[in-house]
Amino acid sequence: MVAVLISEKALIEQIRRMAKTANPAVQTGIGDDCAVLRFLPRRGQLTETLVTTDFTLEGIHFRRDWHPAESVGHRCLARGLSDIAAMGGEPVAAFLSLALPRDLPQAWVGRFARGLISLAERYSVTLAGGDMAESPNGILADIVVVGTVPKGKAMLRSRARPGDRIYVSGELGGSAAAVWVMRKEMRKKSKRTLNPRHYPRHFFPEPRIELGRILREKGLVSAMIDTSDGLSTDLAHICEESGVGAELQAEVIPRACVGKPAREVDLQFALHGGEDYELLFTSRPGKRIPSRIAGVPITHIGQITRQRKIFLRNRGGVGYELQPQGWEHFRRG
Question: Are 209 and 82 contained in the same domain?
Answer without folding.
Answer: no
